[in-house]
Amino acid sequence: MADTSITKARTLLTPAAARPNPYGALGAAALAAMAAVLMAGVMVLGPGVRFDETSASAQP
Question: How many C-beta atoms surround the C-beta of residue 17 within 10 A?
Answer without folding.
Answer: 6
